[in-house]
C-alpha cells in the first residue's frame, strides 16, 4: 500500500517536474548548506587534531602558573626530577623559551620592528622556507649567533629573501645575528612587524631565563602513548618531589594536548551548529513552499478527491496520501541537497588543498563526510514534509464529496 502511494507520489511530481524542482529549491539549499557546513567543520577539526597529534613532540607542556610568587623556577631541576621518575611513555624533555621584542638593523642602518622568540630546530622546521634552512642541532648546541627571519623582514631591510641570506642583523641590544633562513609570513595579511627566531639555547643566556627559568617544557612522548596517564604521572612526580599536597599548592601546570583537542571539538561543534541553524532558515522557507504547492495540488485535484471519497475512501486515507506526497517531495529535495552539500564541501577542500595549502598559510585539509549531518538533514526534511504537509492534507480530507464533484 505505502509503496503504491510513494510510486503515485513520484509520478505526480514528475508530471509537473519544473514546478516540483522550484518547490524543492528551499529544501535543497537548506540541506546543502547544513551538510556542507557540518562537513567543513568536521574536516577542519579532524585536520587540527591530526596536526596536533601526528607526533608525540610537545603534546604535553609544563608551565609555571601565572601570578604565583615562588622561588621554584621552571628550570633544569624540574627536568632532572622527571627524568629520575622514569615515566615509561616519555621519550624526552625539551626546554623552550619565547618572547622578545626589539628593533633590527642592517649594515646600512635600515631598521624594522621585530617580534619573535627562541625556538628549537623542530619548531622552526615546521615553517615554510622561501630560502635557506632551519637551525641545525650544532647551531643549538654551540649557541650559534644565527637567526631565521620572515619574508617581511627580508624584504624590508634587504630587498628579497635571497638577498637576506648570509647577511647580518643587529638588534638594538647590540647583538649580531647571521641570517641562515627566510620563512613565509605567518599571516595572510601584510604584517606590520617582522618575525625573528633564534636558537633556543641562546634563551638560556637571557637574564629573565636565568632568574625565572624556562618559558615552558615540551614533553616528547612515544608513539601511542596515553597522554592523560602521562600528564597524571608528571603531576604526581612533581608533587611528590616538591611536597605539594594538592593541585592548588602546585606551582606548575601540566597541559595535556588532549584537553586542547576537546576544547577544539566543542568550538568546532558549536560553530558548525550555529552556522547550520542560520542556514536552516532556508529549510523553513522551503517548508512554506511545500505547503503552498500542496494547497495548489488540493485545489487542482478537487474532483479526484471527491471521486475517491464517493468510492469509499476515508479521511485518514486521503490525509495519508497527501502526507506521503509532501514527505516524498521533501525527502527528494533532501537527497539532492545532501549530494550538493557533500560535493560542494569536497570542492572547497580540494580548492584549498590545491591553491592555498602550497602557500603555507593553511594545512592540507582531510575531507570528512559528517554522517550525522546527512542523517539529521534527511530527518529534518521528512519532518518538514510531515509538518507543512499536514494542513493541506487535512484540508483535502475534509472536502465535501458532493461539493468537490460539482467544482469545475
Describe the structure.
The protein is α+β, with helices and mostly antiparallel strands. The protein has 16 helices and eleven strands. The strands form two sheets. The protein has a six-stranded mixed beta barrel. It has a four-stranded antiparallel β-sheet with strand order 2-10-1-11. A hairpin with a 4-residue loop joins strand 7 and strand 8. Helix 2 runs antiparallel to helix 12 (281-300), helix 2 crosses helix 14 (315-356) and helix 2 (17-53) runs antiparallel to helix 15 (371-397). The radius of gyration is 33 Å and the shape is elongated. The two termini are 30 Å apart. The mean pLDDT is 85.
Low-confidence stretches: none
* Tally of DSSP β-strands: 11
Helices and strands, in order, run as HHEHEEEHEHEHHEEEHHEHEHHHHHH
Main pleated-sheet profile:
6 strands, mixed, barrel
Distance between the termini: 30 Å
Fraction of residues in helix: 55-70%
The secondary structure category is alpha+beta
Q: Could you give the order of strands across the largest sheet? A: 3-4-9-6-8-7
Integer-rounded radius of gyration: 33 Å
Instruction: Provide the residue-averaged pLDDT.
Output: 85
Shape from CA axes? elongated
Short description:
The protein is an alpha+beta fold and 408 residues long. The chain has 16 helices and 11 strands. Helices cover 58% and strands 16% of the residues.
Amino acid at each position: 500500500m505505502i509503496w503504491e502511494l510513494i510510486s503515485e507520489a513520484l509520478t505526480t511530481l514528475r508530471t509537473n517536474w519544473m514546478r516540483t524542482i522550484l518547490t524543492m529549491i528551499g529544501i535543497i539549499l537548506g540541506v546543502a548548506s547544513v551538510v556542507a557546513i557540518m562537513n567543513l567543520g568536521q574536516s577542519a577539526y579532524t585536520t587540527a587534531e591530526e596536526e596536533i597529534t601526528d607526533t608525540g613532540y610537545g603534546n604535553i607542556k609544563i608551565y609555571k602558573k601565572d601570578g604565583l610568587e615562588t622561588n621554584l623556577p621552571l628550570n633544569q631541576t624540574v627536568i632532572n626530577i622527571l627524568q629520575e621518575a622514569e615515566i615509561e611513555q616519555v621519550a624526552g624533555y625539551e626546554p623552550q623559551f619565547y618572547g622578545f621584542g626589539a628593533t633590527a638593523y642592517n649594515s646600512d642602518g635600515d631598521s624594522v620592528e621585530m617580534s619573535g622568540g627562541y625556538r628549537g630546530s623542530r619548531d622552526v622546521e615546521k615553517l615554510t622556507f622561501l630560502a635557506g634552512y632551519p637551525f641545525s642541532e650544532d647551531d643549538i648546541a654551540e649557541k650559534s649567533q644565527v637567526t631565521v627571519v620572515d619574508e617581511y623582514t627580508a624584504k624590508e631591510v634587504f630587498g628579497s629573501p635571497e638577498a637576506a641570506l648570509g647577511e647580518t642583523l643587529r638588534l638594538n641590544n647590540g647583538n649580531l645575528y647571521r641570517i641562515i633562513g627566510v620563512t613565509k609570513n605567518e599571516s595572510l595579511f601584510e604584517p606590520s612587524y617582522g618575525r625573528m627566531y633564534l636558537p633556543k639555547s641562546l634563551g638560556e643566556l637571557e637574564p629573565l631565563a636565568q632568574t625565572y627559568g624556562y618559558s615552558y617544557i615540551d614533553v616528547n612522548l612515544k608513539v601511542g602513548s596515553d597522554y592523560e596517564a602521562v600528564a597524571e604521572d608528571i603531576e604526581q612526580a612533581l608533587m611528590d618531589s616538591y611536597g605539594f599536597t594538592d593541585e592548588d599548592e602546585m606551582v606548575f601546570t601540566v597541559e595535556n594536548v588532549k584537553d586542547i583537542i576537546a576544547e577544539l571539538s566543542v568550538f568546532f561543534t558549536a560553530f558548525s551548529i550555529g552556522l547550520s541553524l542560520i542556514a536552516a532558515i532556508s529549510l523553513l522557507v522551503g517548508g512554506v513552499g511545500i505547503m503552498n504547492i500542496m494547497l495548489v495540488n488540493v485545489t487542482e485535484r478537487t474532483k479526484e478527491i471527491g471521486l475517491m471519497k464517493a468510492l469509499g475512501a476515508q479521511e485518514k486515507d486521503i490525509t495519508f496520501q497527501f502526507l506521503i506526497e509532501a514527505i516524498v517531495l521533501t525527502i527528494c529535495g533532501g537527497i539532492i541537497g545532501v549530494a550538493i552539500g557533500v560535493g560542494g564541501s569536497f570542492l572547497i577542500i580540494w580548492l584549498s588543498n590545491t591553491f592555498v595549502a602550497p602557500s603555507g598559510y593553511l594545512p592540507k585539509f582531510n575531507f570528512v563526510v559528517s554522517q550525522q549531518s546527512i542523517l539529521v538533514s534527511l530527518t529534518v526534511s521528512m519532518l518538514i514534509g510531515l509538518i507543512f504537509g499536514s494542513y493541506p492534507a487535512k484540508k483535502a480530507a475534509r472536502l465535501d464529496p458532493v461539493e468537490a464533484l460539482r467544482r469545475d
